[in-house]
Design goal:
The chain has helices at about 1-20, 80, 95-115; strands at about 35, 65-70, 90-95. By secondary structure, the protein is mainly α. It has a domain at about 25-115. It has a three-stranded mixed beta sheet with strand order 1-2-3, with no helix packed on it. Helix 2 links the parallel strand 2 and strand 3 (about 90-95).
């Protein structure tokens, strides 16, 4: 009986560690991407609200506002969702979906192509490209 309890305790302790190794990475431009976008030199965004939203007041210097693309409803109930984006104490502008799709994504893709960002397009040193 003691062996069974010990085995059950070990199995219970290692199960969360195994589940923690599973992860999904979604980047800008892929379906399902929501999060921070870097405006930089991109065209001025069309915003959902004209003023930045701040959930918790910031003590000291106010950080620069960030721009986020969020699923429908997250901007309306930002207090509930800000922790998912690590942006509760930061001024946030929410970009409109049409601007993201019609302006930001095409501009972002052209920028990535101009930089020579060829990840996933055969530009790496995969099989058959060994050093001489």
């Amino acid at each position: 009986m003691k062996r069974f309890l010990l085995a059950a305790a070990i199995a219970a302790a290692t199960a969360p560690a195994l589940a923690a190794d599973v992860g999904v990475s979604v980047t800008i431009g892929q379906p399902g991407f929501y999060g921070r976008i870097d405006i930089g030199t991109f065209p001025h965004p069309v915003l959902i609200y004209p003023e930045p939203i701040v959930i918790y007041p910031v003590v000291g210097p106010v950080p620069r506002p960030i721009y986020l693309r969020v699923p429908p409803g997250h901007a309306r109930d930002w207090r509930k969702h800000c922790a998912k984006y690590q942006a509760c104490g930061q001024p946030v502008y929410f970009v409109q979906e049409t601007w993201y799709q019609d302006v930001y994504l095409p501009h972002y893709r052209n920028y990535a192509d101009d930089r020579g960002d060829r990840r996933g397009k055969g530009g790496g040193r995969g099989k058959g490209h060994g050093r001489d």
